[in-house]
Here is the input.
Amino acid sequence: MSDALEPPQEKVRPGAVRVPRWPLVLALIAAAIAYAALPQRLRLGPPYALALAEIVLIVPLLTAHSRGYDRAAHYLGRAALAILTLALVSSTVFLVDRVPGSKTTGTDLLRDGALIWAVNIVVFGIWYWEVDAGGPGRRRPGVYRPQDFAFPQFQLDPQERDDRWIPDFFDYLFLAFNTSTAFSPTDTMVLSRKAKALMMCQSLISLVIIGVLISRAINTIQ
Here is the structure.
C-alpha cells in the first residue's frame, strides 16, 4: 500500500551520461585568441581583456560542472558566451565604422575580416549547442527529440533512423559554418523562434563582414 503512494522514480537510461563542457571551453578560448589577434581599432580594450574575462568565468564553470552543479555551469557558460557575443558585435560595428575611411591595406583587411568571420562561426556554433533542446545538460541518447533544430538524422524514415543519436558540438559548428557561408542552415531545419533569431543575427553579421570586404575591394579597383 505504501509503495503505491510513493511517486514513480525516474529510471536512468543506458548511456545517459553528463555531457562534458570541454567543447564549450575550447571554443571560448579559441574565439578569445582570435579576437586578441585583431588590431586595436577593431576590439574593445587590450588584447588580453576578453581572454581574462573568459578565464574568470571558465574556472568556476568547470568547477561547478565537475561537482554536478549543472544549472550553475549552464548560467556561467551563458555569461561567458554573452561577453564573447558582445565583443563580436562591437568588432563588426568597428569594421563598418572605422575601416572604410582608414588606410588599411587589402591584406590586413582580409585578415581582420577573416578573424571576425571565424569568431562569428564559433560564437554561434556555441549558441546553437547551448540552446538546442534546453542545452547539452538535457540532451540524452534515446531521449533527445528535435525542438530547435531538426538534423538530417531525424528526417530519415523511422525504420532507418537511430533513435539514440544526438548531435555533438561539431554538428552545431557545421550548422554555424553553413549559416555564415550560405546564409541558410542548408541540411538542417530550424524549428523554434529563438533558433531563427540566432540564425538571423549570425547571417546579418556575416553579410556585413562580406559586404565591407567587397565594397573595399571595389574602391581599391576604382
